Amino acid sequence: MSKICDVTANFDEFIAKGTVVVDFWATWCGPCKMLAPIIDDVADKLPNVSFGKVDVDNAIELAKRYKIVSIPNVCVFKDGELVDRIIGLCDEDELTETISKHI
User: Fold this and answer.
1) Which of 14, 61, 80, 97 holds its CA 20 to 30 A away from the CA of 54?
2) Which CATH architecture group holds 11-100?
3) Cis before residue 72, ω within 30 degrees of 0?
4) Pairing state between β 50-55 and 19-25
């Protein structure tokens, strides 16, 4: 299980400042479980980026707001604005490259 915590309750505050990565996932999603350790590894390498998770089954309104129709769905926010996303399972290099463009 990922060490990145759920940010549903304070989502807007969490994404408000800096570069922030949010993993939209679900407990029943196999690719989401495979992505969790990859996100943990990238989070360790990018300490100036905040990482959080949102379980789409428990946060339907957030999933609707960001048009999450497939998971895993990793969204990159910069100062509160959605600036990039990766849909589906990705590797560490792709995730790092996508996030690094917004640091």
Assistant:
1) 97
2) 3-Layer(aba) Sandwich (3.40)
3) yes
4) parallel
